[in-house]
Design a protein that fits this description.
The chain is of the alpha+beta class and 172 residues long. The protein has one domain: Nucleoside diphosphate kinase-like domain (Alpha-Beta Plaits, 2-Layer Sandwich), CATH 3.30.70. The chain has 7 helices and 6 strands; from the N terminus they run βααβααβααβββα. The mean pLDDT is 96. Bound molecules: uridine-5'-diphosphate and magnesium ion. Uridine-5'-diphosphate (UDP) binds next to loops. Uridine-5'-diphosphate binds next to loops.
């Protein structure tokens, strides 16, 4: 029998504070310690709807509005995030462990969040990176941030549809 490793996918976001602090290369270098494979990557301008959907599990929290503005880049004059998918054995655990605890003050000092995160005066955790929390959340988040053909591995079932009269922007 072929040995099957339990490959997992996780969404990674380099949040606007990570981009503003020029940490992209640094964070990707740290994540490369996992030996996981990057199977998708892009820069995204985050709409309010995207941010609210991404963090919908926190919509009753007092910091929700700040969190949405944070992910949209309104706190850092950087209206973009870098979205990636890492794939391989135990991807979620490996990436979350390198990221460190949600609260940057409690995160191990050598972790990504422990090294570069901060708590704002209003109490929001600016922790430079997002990592999915479990496989179900990863699937939900990956389907929110990426289209099937943007991912170079077949992760989830997909289908073809015919879209008529859809406006598209192409090169002039
Ligand atoms: N967050 C916060 N204060 C909290 C909890 C969360 O500012 O008490 C922010 C923080 O930026 C965190 C994000 O909300 O990364 C999502 O929270 P979650 O509990 O999902 O933590 P994560 O999965 O990012 O570690
Ligand atoms: Mg989470």
């Amino acid at each position: 029998m072929k040995e099957e490793h339990k490959n997992q996918a996780t969404l990674i976001l380099i949040k606007p504070d990570g981009l503003k602090k020029s940490l992209t290369g640094n964070i990707l270098t740290r994540l490369s310690e996992t030996k996981l494979e990057i199977i998708a990557a892009k820069m995204v301008r985050v709409t309010k709807e995207m941010a609210e959907e991404h963090y919908r599990h926190l919509k009753d929290q007092p910091f929700f509005n700040d969190l949405i503005r944070y992910l949209q880049g309104e706190l850092h004059q950087r209206k973009k995030v870098m979205a990636l998918i890492y794939w391989g054995e135990d991807a979620i655990k490996k990436c979350r462990s390198l990221a460190g605890a949600t609260n940057p003050e409690e995160a191990e000092s050598t972790s990504i969040r422990g090294s570069y995160g901060r708590i704002t005066t209003s109490g929001l955790y600016e922790n430079v990176i997002h990592v999915s929390s479990d496989p179900l959340e990863a699937e939900r988040e990956i389907k929110l941030w990426f289209k099937p053909l943007e991912i170079i591995v077949d992760l989830y079932p997909k289908k073809k549809i015919t879209v008529k009269e859809k406006e598209e922007t192409v090169w002039a």
